[in-house]
Design goal:
heterotrimer, A mainly alpha, B alpha/beta, C alpha+beta, A: mainly alpha, two-stranded antiparallel sheet, 14 helices, 2 strands, about 70% helix, C: Immunoglobulin-like, 4-stranded antiparallel sheet, 3-stranded mixed sheet, 12 helices, binds adenosine-5'-triphosphate, binds magnesium ion
């Protein structure tokens, strides 16, 4: 068994753009769920809007990178408004169902053949990376060391992705310490009480929904840059994975989503690598390699259950400060 | 008018044994349901709210006098909490209009009602459990710059104001004997302390009208006394108080005026001593407790329980 | 018209150019193959155009003299397989599931995709007839949705849990029927009965092993909901682990339709509707007339009050789980005939519509769930008269959002009390 390759592949995930994208999406979810108490199950929809908004702007309209970025962000702001207007006045569980439904609507609209000329329907889109690569100040060549060695494009992508994650984390940290953050946390605890103190709860929830959604959208763009945009990537399962990361790290924390994402991806990659090679080596005669792949989803599901039951505050959460210990 | 009475009240927190100074001469004409007041702060007209077939509130006309302590009493399910919800914008009536300080409040959302200076507390306390006691208090302050999302990112814009609010909160907490708890989570407070916190939090915004829904329910007798003092204190600071209470001893002790509700209607009004003798009031409570001491009651719950038992038993 | 003619021309061209190719000549450089056999009444259909697309890959072929076709694909992922109905003989159409099917790979490198052919004429049906047909289909779909939705609603009402794992309880019924009818060769009615009983046992087991201990622990409803999401994920891939990613048919699926004026229904459809109606009436009787049913409604109304009046709340919840799971299992069997096909994620495909139905009706009201289900079922089917069928679920979900905008508590729901 090639342990070196297994550990190497797992280490790659530590700073991969995908890990950064999940960390950012989870940070957005922390704003929604951990701080405001909004049960957004449509984070995959926000991510899809980011990915498609960026790709379509470049491919169909020939926008520059910053223009495509703004289109994605604008789309998610509109999406948040459409979602928020009917549901933010309702009980928390209604929001959960409506957001999950809205994210599915977004995915189905990107999948349908009706708009295939723009969205590429089930095949998705590719070929939008040149504009971003053109901004790369790094010379050709390879950077980094060991498992973290990458070519210029991949290094550039990692630098941008993780800079965005760090900036966003600082932003969230600062704003949650402000009086605005205090109102937001108050709403999580009891929105009627906050309303009775003269705060426009509806507007605050909307701001939170938009803010966390925009983080999810930017995450969607980072997620799209190392691969193609394919609608089947934005299924509800994506949202569940991000919840798993958030719960792992701690819902009402800033570091939790980031470290959670790193742990999640490193473990998942390690596990997949291990199982795949164990099956190859004939250690697991009752299992095919495909079943090995499915085993990791089973494991994520079980992990979500166990974390919620036995360590609801996550790794970084303070036992007391947690949205759902009530 | 009540002015002389207010200025005569002591400014220092009163000792528990202090005898409250009653404000009199609040109304015009007979003390009958819906009677006019000399200086009303809150006027409701034809406010009606139904839940399916049940008319929870149907108030023709009622006025709350300014600068006095008014008690709203009535048997369980009389519609007191519902009326509170309607007047504060937490619920929408089927019909009716009402004004606060001369401004119409119909259709005004709850947060804006609160900003106008009409602050309420809840029958079931709503302490924000996972915020510290101090954060709970700070949330009550009005007009904070840092509560705007964009200004929140520039601490220099709101730091001074935050310090002022903190000092004010500490002062209030000291008065309510919660200052030692200021860095604890509100969830760690006892039930009575939460009631105190909720009241203190409501006072952070310097309201003109404080509406308290059963502030004394579930609070032990020692604390009750100090809560009563706090309420009296509000009056001496020029605020108007409207509170719901089931304990008639308390009502008689501190209220300047009593409004009695039953089955959604205002059935009687008047001075706390007179109103107890009103046959309409005795009627309203009849069948539950015929004496004046209504105290705590679990009758509604018990009644519902037996209703369900009946529902199940009609099978046999 | 011109568009149509050019389209036809293009298709004819495609048929010709592909005509000489043998079925196994497309995409042979790849390891994975999607294949099928196009037959109608046991007769092989020659020269039918089939295309596969997905993941940036596209290929097409035509069937050979044995009706066989095969297309190699580069990756194990989901592809869309389309049968060009214009290349079928006159009077033959795709009857069930449409002429576009999704195919994803399971454990094997080959995936077979088969279309259900039947007698029929395309596009000559009048709008009214189409409407009536869709309406009946929608009613059928709505009724089977209702079976699942009532369980979701009862569980929500009694425990406050929005149970995402209901999807897997639906799939369970269909999978068990498949196992007992196809693998063990039992008659289908017996297999269905066994599947429903096992579903009930699953509900009992889940309650005993997971939900009851969590209730004891005093876990709040939102963490409970997240646990159910984790459970749903784990179970779904457990099914895939054991049953693979392919779609299998239950015995009798794809029976030819009978004609009743404009309405064409297969005997299975009729049986499905009949069973749904009978079972739903039974559930209504249970809730309205029996002691346990009344107790269930009382617990739904106010659990603490109910327990104060001597109702065994835990017992009621246990019954709700068993009944809810059994109904979900039955719903899964009917869904397997309606789609048609049994697959590992079939319940999850339906879950959102179930939630939409329950939300439409008002969370926690059993009869609201029934009405919501019928509305959703009818809407999904009728909307295909105007919008492309691959967007039919979009319509139902949009309606959900619109209804919440105007009636936030759902159709039959109650507003909550403040203060
Ligand atoms: N949201 C609601 N839905 C249905 N009925 C309601 C609702 N809110 C209140 N009610 C009904 O309206 C009536 C008045 O209730 P309300 O809470 O105002 O009584 P109350 O006077 O505050 O009683 P208590 O002294 O017990 O607090 C009751 O019969 C109650 O059941
Ligand atoms: Mg009340």
């Amino acid at each position: 068994m090639d342990w070196g390759a297994i550990f190497g592949n797992a280490a790659v995930e530590l700073i991969s753009p995908t890990t950064a994208a999940y960390a950012l999406a989870a940070l957005g979810l922390a704003v929604h769920f951990g701080y405001t108490g909004l049960l957004n199950f449509g984070q995959a929809g926000f991510m899809a809007l980011g990915a498609y908004g960026y790709a379509i702007s470049i491919l169909t309209f020939g926008f520059p990178v910053w223009g495509a970025f703004l289109v994605g962000v604008g789309a998610s702001v509109i999406f948040a408004l459409i979602l928020g207007i009917p549901t933010l006045r309702l009980r928390a569980d209604y929001l959960a169902i409506v957001t999950i439904a809205a994210a599915e609507i977004v995915r189905l609209l990107f999948t349908t053949n009706t708009f295939a000329s723009v969205t590429g329907s089930a095949n998705g889109l590719s070929g939008y990376k040149n504009e971003f690569a053109a901004l790369n100040p790094l010379a050709e060549g390879s950077y980094g060391f060991g498992p973290f060695e990458n070519n210029a494009y991949d290094t550039w992508l990692r630098i941008v992705a993780w800079s965005i994650v760090i900036l966003a984390a600082l932003f969230v940290w600062q704003i949650m310490r402000s009086p605005w953050g205090r109102v937001i946390k108050g709403i999580r605890e009891d929105e009627d009480a906050v309303r009775a103190l003269g705060k426009n709860v509806y507007a605050y929830k909307m701001q939170s929904l938009i803010f966390g959604g925009v983080l999810g959208t930017i995450a969607g763009m980072i997620f799209a840059l190392p691969r193609a945009v394919v609608p089947s990537n934005y299924q509800t399962t994506l949202t569940f994975f991000i919840y798993a990361i958030l719960l792992l790290g701690g819902a009402a924390t800033v570091l939790g989503p980031i470290i959670g994402s790193m742990i999640f991806w490193v473990l998942l990659s390690f596990f997949s690598g291990f199982i795949a090679r164990a099956v190859e080596a004939g250690w697991l005669p009752f299992m095919t390699s495909i079943q090995g792949g499915q085993l990791r989803f089973i494991l994520v599901g079980v992990a979500i259950m166990l974390i919620v039951i036995f360590r609801p505050q996550g790794i970084f959460g303070n036992k007391k400060e947690l949205a759902f210990v009530r | 008018m009540s002015d002389n009475a207010v200025s005569a009240a002591p400014l220092e927190p009163p000792v528990p044994t202090q005898k409250p100074i009653k404000t009199t001469g609040l109304h015009i004409g007979e003390a009958e349901p819906g009677c006019r007041k000399v200086d009303p702060i809150l006027i409701a007209d034809g406010v009606r709210r139904t839940f399916g077939g049940l008319t929870a509130v149907d108030v023709d006309h009622v006025e709350v006098p300014r600068g006095a302590i008014t008690a709203l009493i009535g048997p369980n399910g009389a519609g007191k909490t519902t009326l509170f919800n309607l007047l504060t914008g937490f619920d929408k009536p089927d019909a009716g209009k009402w004004t606060f300080d001369g401004r119409s409040l119909a259709g005004v959302p709850a947060y804006r009602v609160a900003r106008m200076g009409q602050i309420r507390t809840f029958q079931l306390t709503k302490a924000l459990g996972l915020l510290t006691v101090m954060d709970n208090m700070l949330l009550g302050a009005k007009g904070q710059t840092g509560e705007n999302m964009f200004r929140a990112l520039m601490p220099f814009l709101w730091r001074n104001q935050e310090e002022e609010n903190r000092a004010k909160a500490l002062d209030l907490l000291t008065r309510f004997k919660l200052d030692t708890k200021k860095d604890d989570y509100a969830a760690s407070l006892s039930g009575g302390q939460r009631k105190l916190l909720e009241m203190a939090r409501a006072l952070m915004s310097d309201p003109t009208l404080v509406m308290l829904d059963e502030p004394m329910a579930g609070v032990n007798p020692a604390l009750t006394q100090s809560l009563l003092d706090h309420i009296l204190n509000l009056k001496s600071e020029g605020m108007t108080v409207l509170f719901v209470e089931h304990d008639m001893h308390m009502v008689r002790h501190i209220a300047d005026w009593v409004i009695v509700m039953a089955e959604g209607h205002v059935v009687a009004e008047g001075d706390p001593h007179e109103v107890m003798r009103n046959p309409a009031v005795i009627d309203a409570y009849l069948g539950q407790h015929h004496d004046e001491d209504l105290g705590e009651d679990q009758s509604a719950e018990a009644e519902n329980v037996s209703a369900i038992k009946e529902l199940l038993d009609d099978e046999r | 018209m011109i568009l149509f003619v050019t389209l036809l021309a293009a298709l004819t061209m495609a048929t010709f150019s592909g005509g000489s190719a043998h079925a196994d000549e497309v995409g042979t450089e790849f390891d994975f193959t999607i294949s099928g056999n196009v037959q109608f009444n046991g007769e092989a259909q020659d020269g039918v155009a089939i295309s596969v697309s997905g993941n940036g890959y596209e290929a097409d072929t035509v069937t050979d003299a044995d009706g066989r076709w095969a297309i190699g694909v580069p990756e194990k992922s989901t592809y869309e397989v389309t049968l060009d109905e214009d290349t079928l003989p006159k009077g033959v159409v795709v009857t069930k599931g449409g002429n576009v099917l999704e195919a994803d790979f399971g454990l094997t490198d080959r995936r077979s995709v088969n279309f259900f052919l039947g007698e029929g004429v395309r596009n000559t049906v009048s709008f009214f007839d189409q409407f009536v047909n869709r309406f009946v289909n929608g009613l059928n779909f709505g009724l089977l949705l209702a079976l699942a939705a009532i369980g979701v609603s009862l569980i929500f009402g009694t425990t406050g849990l929005s149970n995402f794992a209901h999807a897997e309880m639906i799939t369970f019924g269909a999978l068990m029927t498949l196992v007992f009818s196809v693998s063990f060769g039992l008659p289908i009615w017996l297999a269905i009965l066994i599947a429903i009983v096992l579903s009930g046992c699953l509900g009992y087991g889940l309650d005993a092993v997971i939900w009851k201990p969590l209730r004891r622990k005093g876990v709040a409803v939102i963490p409970l909901m997240i646990v159910s999401i984790g459970l749903s994920l784990a179970l779904r891939y457990l099914y895939q682990y054991f049953f693979g990613g392919s779609t299998s048919q239950l015995p009798g699926a794809g029976m030819t339709d009978l004609k009743f004026g404009p309405i064409s229904l297969s005997p299975i459809d009729m049986a499905s509707m009949g069973i749904s109606i009978v079972v739903l009436l039974g559930v209504a009787y249970f809730l309205l007339r029996t002691r346990i049913g009344k107790a269930t409604r009382a617990v739904s109304d106010n659990p603490s009050l109910a327990s104060a009046s001597g109702i065994d709340v835990d017992g009621v919840i246990r019954i709700v789980w068993v009944v809810g799971a059994a109904l979900a299992g039955l719903s899964g069997v009917l869904w397997a005939y309606f789609r048609p096909g049994v697959s590992w994620d079939m319940g999850f495909q339906m879950l959102l519509l179930v939630f939409a139905a329950v939300t439409l009706g008002g969370l926690g009201t059993a009869f609201g769930a029934l009405i919501g289900s019928i509305v959703v079922g009818l809407f999904v089917e009728l909307s295909t008269l105007w919008i492309p069928s691959d967007m039919k679920y979009v319509g139902a979900l949009v309606v959900l959002i619109l209804v919440l905008l105007f009636r936030p508590q759902g159709i039959l729901g109650r507003k909550e009390r403040i203060g």
